[in-house]
Design brief:
The complex is a heterodimer of chains A (214) and B (221). Chain A is an alpha/beta fold and 214 residues long. In chain A, 29% of the residues lie in helices and 30% in strands. Classes of the chains: A alpha/beta (214), B mainly alpha (221).
């Protein structure tokens, strides 16, 4: 059963089309990679799927709800890792997560559990601004799963992560539906059952594992 | 479920904690208001006779420009850190997030006023009374609500430093008029202090309610 259904998603930035008539259906528990060159429309598509942006036209239904009208209800069930980590540099790693626990309405004990999951226990009291870019990315991934979302939208989550990126991502993606943008075809093949390739804002096809459209 | 009060407190505490650790804003604002008073001290021929009529004007000028910086930073910092989107992607009420940001900005400006008011007394010999402090604090509440709303509105545009004063200053005029009158009377000029304070309370209620209603639409794009 599809947990996410998008019909004719189109997005314009002024006179430039960033996304054109993209149709998509993702089943519960499925992991889909979104591939494409820079400027292909991956981030725009992911921002719309995460309810961070509204499409210019088209329909989007997530978990049976109209994603354009029920955004706040859906945000309880969606985790989103954006292109930039978006952390508070003056707060420690633990304080960053505890702050978002309050905003998500979950117990602050989730912060410690999540730090352990993303491998940042030893960095818990360090200011986020002093963490390496890879550690910041881990913290951003941790923030996205604090509230145990059913749908995870990841925009190049492997950026700046070390050699164990695939293991970390596999751990956070397990038992969740995931849409993930990446430039790493090998990672996409390892973690995702299906890929969607975008070119100039248009879908040029989907493929199952090991049959990536290039 | 997210508790709106807990969210507002968490947002305010986060902003105040970040300011305490970085000390970016308050020391700069304190220096700014002292410099403004030094310039005014040399620019005007102030003596004990005209101080009660000139000092309130200098007080409000310094406060208005310090406020523009303090409220502008409230959302500009979130924008620069790319954290505004993460904040708004939570199910927390945008009104609670706005209230938390406004609370923190208000407290930071009060910190700046804690330097400005004694300095005003020191430079111009005007009395530092409970009446003066009450008038300034009442005006700060409404000015913070409006300032933070417009700061949130312009946070996503490029010319925000220019737009924020253009949008905010006209709507701050009622606070400057009523607050100015209250401070002048408290410093010895003739007029009704109670009437000016009642006006400030009315403006506070009006603008806090209006900005809370508008915050939802401004923050939820």
């Amino acid at each position: 059963m599809s947990i996410l259904v998008a019909n004719g998603l189109t997005h314009w930035f002024g006179s430039e089309v960033a996304l054109e008539s993209v149709d998509l259906a993702i089943d519960a528990g499925e992991h889909m990679a979104v591939l494409g060159e820079n400027g292909a429309g991956k981030t725009t598509l992911l921002r719309i799927l995460a309810t961070a942006a509204r499409p210019t036209s088209g329909g989007l239904e997530i978990m049976g709800l109209d994603a354009l009208r029920e955004r706040r209800r859906l945000r309880r069930r969606i985790g989103y890792v954006a292109h930039a980590p978006g952390l508070y540099p003056a707060l420690s790693a633990a304080e960053n997560l505890e702050f978002f626990c309050t905003l998500q309405g979950v117990s602050r004990t989730r912060a410690a559990e999540t730090l352990a999951l993303v491998g940042l226990v030893s960095e818990a009291s360090r200011p986020a601004g002093l963490l390496s870019r890879g550690m910041q990315q881990r913290l951003a991934i941790g923030r996205a799963i604090l509230h145990d979302p059913k749908l995870l939208v990841l925009d190049e989550p492997d950026a700046s992560l070390g050699s164990d990126a695939a293991d970390l991502l596999a751990a956070v993606m397990s038992d969740r539906t995931v849409v993930m943008a990446t430039h790493d075809h090998a990672l996409a093949n390892r973690l995702c059952q299906r890929t969607l390739t975008l070119r100039h804002g248009r879908s040029v096809g989907t493929a199952t594992r090991l049959h990536v459209v290039r | 479920m997210t508790n709106s009060f807990a969210v507002a407190v968490a947002v305010a505490r986060k902003d105040l904690r970040a300011e305490w650790r970085t000390r970016e804003l308050v020391p700069a604002l304190a220096q700014f208001v002292i410099l403004a008073l030094v310039i005014a001290n040399f620019g005007f021929q102030i003596d004990s006779r005209n101080a009660p009529s000139i000092a309130p004007g200098i007080l409000w000028l310094a406060l208005v420009f310090a406020g523009l910086v303090a409220f502008g930073r409230a959302f500009a910092a979130e924008r620069e850190q790319a954290s505004l989107e993460a904040l708004l992607m939570t199910p927390a009420s945008p009104v609670a997030i706005f209230a938390g940001k406004a609370m923190a900005a208000t407290l930071l400006l009060i910190g700046c006023e804690a330097v400005l008011l004694p300095a005003l007394t020191l430079f111009f010999g005007t009395p530092l009374s409970v009446e003066v402090i009450a008038a300034v604090l009442l005006a700060t509440i409404g000015m913070a609500a409006l300032g933070c709303l417009f700061a949130a509105m312009v946070a996503r545009v490029r010319a925000r430093e220019l737009l924020l004063p253009l949008l905010t200053l006209p709507l701050w005029i009622p606070f400057i008029v009523a607050g100015g009158q209250a401070v002048q009377v408290a410093m010895g000029a003739s007029g009704s202090y109670d009437q000016a304070m009642a006006l400030l309370v009315d403006f506070d209620i009006l603008f806090v309610v209006l900005t809370s209603l508008a915050a939802r639409f401004v923050l939820d794009d």
